[in-house]
Design brief:
Helix content is 81%, strand content 1%. The longest helix has 31 residues, at 288-318. The protein is an all-alpha fold and 492 residues long. A two-stranded antiparallel sheet has the order 1-2. It folds into two domains: 3-236, no CATH class; 239-487, no CATH class. A hairpin with a 2-residue loop joins strand 1 (321-322) and strand 2. It contains 21 helices and two strands. Helix 4 runs antiparallel to helix 5 and helix 4 (65-73) packs parallel to helix 7.
Length: 492
């Protein structure tokens, strides 16, 4: 197969995986406005709190086995592939059964940790089943990716989300099942995914576990566990800590507003999907580092404009009335004050991904554990000391600080192994303008009159200063985008 054809296929797969993930997240996001209309802030807080533990348990159930499977299956040929698949799948099946049986035996203790009231005790059983079934799909999904069955992968993922959303609406509105409906819908969607993958599972499964292969898989996969847990801590630890120091209602308000950061998150996700294949394809170019430097500047330019715009006008968007109801339930609107901080956090998360190129190219990815660990410690420490005084504002600030810390240390480590001369004059000016615009928003929110005219003036001034301060010119923006997309024309 020619190199050009390989690149074309890479681009096609990246587009399918990327777009399916983004579309899936958008469909899933539609549940947030729905939940805020039908659930109290305390009920939404309870759902958010329980699903935080659910996310951590998912990582423990799979313990890096899907990553290890992809590593060794990609190097194997012939019957060896079935041995690797069978060993990985059966091992996960056995350990998941052990975890789930243990979970079942200590279900009452688990309900205490999850703070699930007696009338909602069935939720514990739903969680056990969802974790068990989901764990059995990780390796088969990884196998689809290795077999380059991108369309099948994306179709099952999207149908899973559609089933989940549809059942949520039916069970809540028609059958009046409350938050229990969320878990029943999730369980049904998980069962669908397992059934959809069953043919591929049976096709590749041999009822034997190869000890040598198992040892290799465990040695490669388990080290991913702390890094995955650290990354999840950065994303979600604020929820249980907020619940610990405040109450479920505060968690609900915070989480609903946090979810509004999806627009920046989607932008960063789209960049991430395109960025890795782009820097790998261009790593050997003579001017690769110059290109990567330009990419960072353009990313911060676009992300900064998006961040400021959303920060200024998100309140007007969510208060649009449809059939007499706002997009977000009125009792949740007090949490909108955190949105600019969450958006800034995602911006720095994108910068962190920018700096990942050098570490990946030089095969120094083991340092990622240290970087995510630092981010986790920053978030835990800040939340512990400041949530009691600041409430959910402290949780939002901790999100921003943790991503800033990760971006900073990722830069330090990346420069050590793959030095790039970034356009720091432009980068720092862009970041300063972004912080000043958002700072102006907070000053006016607390001390002034925040109306749409003033917000529009701040937005216009922000954009004008980008050109007045000669951070970037129209010609430079046009040239940079042409360079990126001409070299990356196969990536969506």
């Amino acid at each position: 197969m020619s190199s050009l054809k390989k690149i074309l296929e890479l681009g096609k797969d990246t587009a399918v995986y990327g777009l399916s993930t983004i579309i899936g997240r958008l469909i899933g996001f539609l549940l947030v406005p729905f939940y805020t209309q039908v659930f109290t802030t305390a009920e939404f807080g309870k759902y958010s709190y329980v699903y935080t533990f659910f996310a951590f348990l998912n990582i423990i159930y799979i313990y890096g086995m899907d990553v290890a499977f992809m590593k060794y299956d990609s190097l194997a040929e012939g019957d060896e592939k079935k041995k690797i698949f069978s060993t990985a799948f059966l091992t996960v099946l056995i350990t998941s059964l052990i975890f789930s049986i243990t979970f079942f035996i200590f279900s009452y203790q688990a309900s205490d940790i999850l703070k699930i009231r007696e009338e909602y005790f069935n939720i514990v059983y739903y969680i056990i089943l969802i974790l068990l079934i989901d764990s059995l799909t990780f390796v088969p999904f990884a196998n689809l990716r290795l077999q380059r069955k991108a369309k099948k992968f994306a179709t099952i993922k999207l149908l899973n989300i559609i089933i989940n959303v549809a059942l949520n609406i039916i069970l809540i509105l028609v059958f009046k099942m409350g938050i229990e409906a969320i878990f029943i819908a999730n369980l049904c969607a998980s069962i669908f995914s397992l059934i959809a993958l069953s043919k591929d599972i049976l096709k590749n499964l041999q009822l034997t576990i190869n000890k040598k292969i198992l040892i290799k898989l465990l040695k490669f996969g388990i080290p991913y566990l702390p890094a995955s847990l650290s990354a999840m801590t950065v994303q979600l630890i604020d929820i249980p800590m907020l619940e610990m120091f405040t109450d479920e209602s505060t968690v609900g308000i915070y989480r609903a507003s946090y979810k509004l950061g999806i627009f920046m998150m989607l932008f960063v996700s789209m960049f991430q999907f395109a960025w890795q294949p782009f820097f790998l394809q261009n790593a050997k170019e003579k001017n690769a580092k110059e290109i990567f430097s330009k990419v960072l500047t353009v990313f911060i330019l676009v992300a900064g404009i998006l961040c400021v715009f959303l920060s200024l006008f998100i309140e007007e968007v969510v208060q649009i009335e449809i059939f007499g109801r706002t997009i977000i339930g009125r009792e949740y609107l007090s949490g909108l004050i955190i949105v600019p901080l969450i958006l800034l956090g995602y911006l720095f998360n994108g910068i962190y991904f920018n700096f990942y190129a050098g570490i990946y190219i030089e095969e120094k990815t083991k340092w990622t554990i240290l970087v995510t660990g630092i981010g986790a410690l920053v978030k835990i420490g800040f939340n512990y000391f400041f949530i009691p005084q600041w409430g959910f504002m402290a949780a939002a600030v901790s999100t921003l600080l943790s991503y800033m810390a990760m971006a900073f240390f990722q830069y330090i480590i990346s420069q050590k192994f793959y030095k790039i001369h970034y356009e720091f004059d432009k980068v720092m000016k862009l970041l300063l303008l972004t912080f000043l615009a958002i700072g102006a928003y907070y000053v006016l929110f607390y001390f002034g009159d925040m109306n749409i005219l003033i917000k529009s003036i701040i937005m216009i001034l922000f954009v004008l200063l980008i050109f007045i301060l000669n951070i970037v010119s129209f010609k430079e923006v046009s040239t940079t985008f042409k360079t990126i997309f001409s070299r990356n024309k196969f990536i969506v």
